[in-house]
Amino acid sequence: HIQACLFDLDGVLVDTAKYHYLAWKRLANELGFDFTEQDNERLKGVSRMASLDILLSIGRLTLEDAKKQELAARKNDWYVESISRMDHTEILPGALEFLQACRENGLKTALGSASKNAMTILNNTGLTPYFDAIIDGTHTSSAKPDPEVFILGAQELGISPESCVVFEDAEAGIEAARRADMNCIGIGSLATLGQADFVIASLAEMTVERLDQLEQA
Ligand code: G16
Ligand code: MG
């Protein structure tokens, strides 16, 4: 029986991928190469430093660690500037309604994000009060597909993994949920998220009743 819902942030509750994209593209352009929206797909759910490594491989650049730290910090400054202007209008369709429904039905809720900027985003959009536990990139030592972020979330809620369901838009996140022995609902397209128990286009399609579909799986 499902007792807790764990949510990824970017791509599930808010669309911050566009801000990550603009900042990474600006960095790539400064380094002398292009970075497309298709390239950006590879960064979804991936940690900041791993994202930089992917970006540098696209530009065929190999840099020293100190230089990489500097570039990641520069990208993050631009990104933080973008998210500082976010508000509740940037919550994705159905997300707030489903979080409210979870709480009205006695389900626990947790955030499980790779981002070190999750608190800024939650506070600016007004989503912070909807979570019983918040685990983000400042709490974890291993990034998705490592299951750490979701295991910590379930522990803080005091709910066993098999009674948890993770909502994820990234392949790495689905794998993390699987490795945590949790149920998993994909947000996006079946083509990339086939490892989920089922896939929906957005949380606007989700209801508490639909969680029963997981019991039958
Ligand atoms: C998000 C994004 C990733 C980003 C990562 C780290 O993860 O999907 O593209 O690279 O966070 O973000 P930051 O640079 O802010 O620490 P999630 O897990 O919320 O989808
Ligand atoms: Mg995501």
UniProtKB/TrEMBL annotation:
**Keywords attached to this entry:** Isomerase, Magnesium, Metal-binding
The entry lists its GO molecular-function terms as:
beta-phosphoglucomutase activity; magnesium ion binding; sugar-phosphatase activity
Broad EC category: isomerase
Q: Which residues bind Mg(2+) per the record?
A: D8, D10, E168, D169
Task: Identify the residues that bind substrate.
Answer: 8-10, 24, 43-48, 51, 75, 113-117, 144
One biological process GO term for this chain?
Answer: carbohydrate metabolic process
User: What residue ranges carry the coiled-coil annotation?
Assistant: none
What the record says about family reads: Belongs to the HAD-like hydrolase superfamily. CbbY/CbbZ/Gph/YieH family.
Q: What's the protein here called?
A: Beta-phosphoglucomutase
User: What gene is it encoded by?
Assistant: pgmB
